[in-house]
Amino acid sequence: MDIDAWLWWLIGAAVLGIVLVVTAMPELGMLAVGAIAAAVVSGVFGGGAVAQVVVFAVVSTALIAVVRPIAKRQRAGRPQHATGVDALKGRQAVVLERVDGSGGRIKLAGEVWSARALDSGHAYEVGQEVDVVEIEGATAIVM
Q1: Which of 29, 67, 91, 142 has an alpha carbon within 20 to 30 A of 12's alpha carbon?
Q2: According to the model, what pLDDT value does residue 63 have?
Q3: Beta strand pairing status for 129-136 and 111-117?
Q4: pLDDT band for position 79 (50/70/90)?
Q5: What's residue 67's pLDDT?
Q6: CB of 88 closer than 8 Å to CB of 132
Q7: pLDDT surpasses 90 at 29
Q8: SS3 of the chain
């Protein structure tokens, strides 16, 4: 049983696609696209082995050379967004009940939180604005 070259290229592209999914290496996806291009050259245009290999190499290299730097720039330029309690650090809150080293209450991000002063000798009075420096469990540490 003789299998045409274009079918081998498609099998290679499928294998690369499977390995891409398993390893999460995007370069393998670009190689798979190169293999599909070589299959097209073989099946549709009837190109010989040299033309197939050249198309595979050129398409794969071009995709890696063009797409990789763009993806790297996008990844580096994307700001990291803090979520959960990390997003609350550094925010301002309003004191609802006197806050000192032993406790108190603040309004932080629209919610009422228990709070404790970072400096146990310092107290914050009702209406005063404070900065959240840390979250320990359900308690905001403020200054």
Answers
A1: 67
A2: 95
A3: unpaired
A4: low
A5: 92
A6: yes
A7: yes
A8: CCCCHHHHHHHHHHHHHHHHHHHCCHHHHHHHHHHHHHHHHHHCCCCCHHHHHHHHHHHHHHHHHHHHHHHHHHHHHCCCCCCHHHHCCCCEEEEEEEEECCEEEEEECCEEEEEEECCCCCCECCCCEEEEEEEECCEEEEC
Mean pLDDT, residues 74-103: 85
Token readout for 78 is 């994307």
Would you give the end-to-end CA distance of the chain in angstroms?
Answer: 79
What gap in Å lies between CA 55 and CA 53, rounded to an integer? Answer: 5
- What single-letter amino acid sits at 134? E
One-letter amino acid at 80 equals Q
Mean pLDDT score of the chain: 91
Question: What pTM was computed for the model?
Answer: 0.54
Token representation of residue 63: 């995709």
